[in-house]
Amino acid sequence: QVQLVESGGNLVQAGGSLRLSCAASGSTVSINRMGWYRQAPGKQRELVATITSDSTTNYADSVKGRFTISRDNAKNTVYLQMNSLKPEDTAVYYCYAASIQWSGVYDYWGQGTQVTVSS
Q1: Which of 4, 35, 87, 114 has a 20 to 30 A CA-CA distance from 27?
Q2: Helix, coil or strand: residue 88
Q3: Is 89 helix (H, G, I), strand (E, B) or coil?
Q4: Which tens digits make up the pLDDT trace of 2-61?
Q5: CA dihedral 12, 62, 57, 82 (to 10 degrees)
């Protein structure tokens, strides 16, 4: 089992910055990929960014050049630095972890943290 706890969501003006954090606990040695997804009201959950254990990153086109994902393996924590925020970035942001275990690959999710960008 893996537990994920997010923090850092807030209300910010357009053009501002926020840093989200996600701390993993439990069977962290099995975690391969971590990342962030978001879900805006009335929309499906979508990928924001992911990072693997060897720090390979992947970003949604909508956030490339503005968001940066990073990972501290010693602290089992993943971060999302969000710059030049836009009102369309408003959503609940969920931390994600993929755990590779002998029985298969399991996905874990945090409880979500609200990011609101005002125009």
Answers
A1: 114
A2: helix
A3: helix
A4: 999 999 999 999 999 999 999 999 988 888 999 999 999 999 999 999 999 899 999 999
A5: -10
**For residues 37 and 93, is the Cβ–Cβ distance under 8 A?**
yes
Provide the token pair at 85. Answer: 């925020």
Three-class DSSP category at 60: coil
Q: Identify any residues that bridge with 89 across adjacent strands, giving them in sequence order.
A: none
First to last CA, the chain: 40
> What would the two tokens of residue 56 be?
């390979």
SS3 content of the chain, % helix, strand, coil (to 5): 5, 60, 35
**Tokens representing 70?**
């990073």
Between β-strands 11-13 and 113-118, what pairing exists: parallel, antiparallel or unpaired? Answer: parallel
* Residue located via tokens 């999302």: 80
- Alpha-carbon distance of 96 to 75, in angstroms, equals 16
Could you give the CA distance from residue 10 to residue 90 in angstroms, rounded to a whole number? 10
List 110's β-bridge partners, or say none. Answer: none
